[in-house]
Amino acid sequence: MMKKTAIVALTALAFSAAPTYAQAVDPEEFALEEVVVTATKTDMKKKTVPASVEVITREDINARGAHTLKDIISTAAGVSMIRSTGRDAVSIRGFESWFSMILIDGKRISSEIDQSYELERIALANVERIEIVRGPVSSLYGTDAMGGVVNIITKRAAAPAFSASLGHGANSRGDRGGKDRYHFTYDSGLQGKTGVTLSGSRLENNASFKSNGTTYAPYGERENISTSVDYRLTEDETITLTAAYMSEDTQEYAYKETPAGNTRMRIHDQNKRYDYSLSYNKQETATNSVFLRAYLSEYYKKSDIYNAASGQFMNFGDSHRTLPGFEARLTRAAGDRHILTYGGEYRPEKFRGTAVKTGQKIFSVNHGGKVLTGSGIDLDYSALYIQDQWQVSPKLLAVSSLRYDDSNRFESNLSPKLGLTYEASGESRLKLNVAKGFRTPTPNQLYISSSVKRNDDFVTLIGNDQLRSEKSNSYELSLEQDWGKATGKLTYFVNKLDNMIEEDWLSSSQVTYQNIDKATLQGVEAELSYPLSATLAWTANYTNLDATDDQNNSRLTNRARHKLASRLAYDDHDSVRASLWCEFYGDFLYDAGAGASKNKSYSLWNLNLEKALTPNYTFSVGVENLLNKKDEDLSLQGAFVYSEIRLKF
Known about the structure:
By secondary structure, the chain is mostly beta strands.
């Protein structure tokens, strides 16, 4: 109640804000959309970089009323959402979520090994833009980047500003699944040599139940707060300190096979994450720079399981993951045609858990009258890499990179990549990428023994300590074409994988991990961006995916053969903005459990309308799942209607 009162008071206060704030233009309106950093760890024009990159700007985030990564990423080219177990997981070019690395300002975050939990945990309140690189980037980022990289880039202090919002939404069936959202951002601007940003958000959502009594999605509360402090030593040198905190308290329901029969259970999860980093950046020239960073990310998870009918405490889980990292990067021009980047990193990770059975680092936990024995594992990763951006001729650019990774637990690995961009004309570009990727098994995949939710049931997930590291050979050919302000792109990609790790059902109540000796993920992507007028723009992308287990020539589950995303955006450049967008999934092979599968095709339409009532005060309304699509397998519960008040000064 106090939070609601505070934000409403801030809304009223906005009308008396000083004119200098009211008329200020947000710096994100002039974000450099054509420049990307994630694909090469250097600034490059998007049209020039050989890799397939998509940029989601702050303007895109606002226009679609997005609050978390889940709300915005699903319409990106080559990106699909795997909808199951009440959590949406990201899939890039058919790779499972654990093949794609999620970074914040280029650094790793500790999390549960399955990235499907992260899409709703990453708040967008202070995000400047999101860069998505499709295809393997192991040559720069190492393990976990076989499918691609999603880099969330936060705002830096620019000009004095404050914004806040208050929003509410409800499911079409009433207040079940209702959500209340709050957020704020503060920018001190550059005060002398120092600039500070501070942002926070809070989500409160209610339970929504399926016909069998299980929940569509976890419900409860989530809070995020983050800050960054920039101190400019000189015009070229900056020291940056960041800190962030995430807290989540959720519940959900599922069924578990017990001696008494199939019993409905309530799961209570408490998750916390702490992130800190200290970095030094010296940008001597456009091509010469030095970057150093040390960071620490800690993740704590506690799970309690109760009999839903009796309330009896049944079991619990306790885990802790520590991810410290140290990285250094040097970029230097070598003559007129080469820009060389040298880098390295070291990560001494620690993983402890009651569901991890390594036989090492043994400990015990007493909770609720039950005692569980857990274990742990220490993983040391080190790496060195080099990259050469070579302007072979005025029309041909070659970007080559090579990374060496080593670990105290896994074999060493070399990951090369070559990318070429040939500018046939000012409007046409041909791009080629050839790369090798790799990924080591995670502690969960090797050693877990725990109850997890799959579809609407609790099953036992059993690790496989015989898993081998995954490797890939990837090829990509793209043609880009400009027609005035319109742009189009056609891409053919092939990923040949050895030892691909997938889940394997042992029975209706047990799941493990296995290596697939040979698998292929290949397809075609088509993208189009077309301004229909000065106020109306249309974008669309289509992906055709063939995901095959080459051992038996069968399709891999939880992938759609066809995925289409389209968006129509209106902006009168004064006070009104509107976005209508859709996602279509065709021939989605849903994993129904224990070797069963279902083919599903569906579309989701969404609408967001925004009106600036004053320079300080904006009101928006929207509908997710506009046509009220319902599917309990996919946790689609129908239309969700929301409204939001946003202020800035």
